[in-house]
Amino acid sequence: MQIGMIGLGKMGGNMAERLRRGGHDVVGYDRDPELSDVGSLKELVDRLEAPRAVWVMVPAGEPTHSTIRLLREMLSPGDIVIDGGNSHYVDDQKHGADLATRGVGFVDVGVSGGVWGLENGYALMVGGTAEDVARLRPVFETLKPEGEDGFVHAGRVGAGHFAKMVHNGIEYGMMQAFAEGWELLEASDIVTDVHGSFKSWRQGTVIRSWLLDLLVRALDQDPGLADIKGYAQDSGEGRWTVQAAVDHAVPLPVITAALYARFASRQEDSPAMKMVAALRNQFGGHAVTAQEGQTGMGADAPGADVTPPVEVQR
Fold it and tell me: What keywords are annotated for this sequence in UniProt (predicted)?
């Protein structure tokens, strides 16, 4: 099958390569001329035979919006635009409705697989009409992992990115749980082989997973994670998952906490924790000074004298 691929970065470039290996005719466009097969979007569209299929693999937000707006003016009735980035499902619905006025189809695809997808395949969560998805099925079959799973036509336009959004929210919670477990094991004076403990969980346990494999790999490369800064960015999908939970009145305490933990990772000296320390000092005499970084046993500490100082009013 012939397909255009816009955006040939880490994901888009590898996806284009996997499609080529699978026998598809891929025409790629990227702003980097060294990666691009053509010099412009117009040239890409002109190179494709009608009815065209154009896969957009650029950052979510304005880069995707502007690319789809340009394609809208270049494509013809019967063509299909595929958004494989991390777009918000609400934006998919707008794009689908707008392109439909020109007779152009729209399919949203949530893609998971990262840098390993070229060799292992990509998990694909797809939203769109049955007709459009069926037409693109040869492309999906090549991109997905071998075997029965790894692909789902999740529902109408927007469903693919909604499913991927929830997938990423779950991923947030799983990573946070592994991270907290690692920190607790490191803090223990009983467990002397933390690295080996995680390795032992890779077989025969209910938490064995690819994430666990990657955690062990990270520790193999950098025991103690001395070269890693404790700062975690969020792609936006964690926020959208929490917002969708609010919109649907569905409680997501684990995913929400994991998102907030990422926010906390960006604060070198948390303002909120400064206030907590100040309040504990006020009612219990427990202080942590910025200059000394020293702690004192406050009134609420285990074994402390619970009789408050004379000057403290409760």
Answer: Gluconate utilization, Oxidoreductase
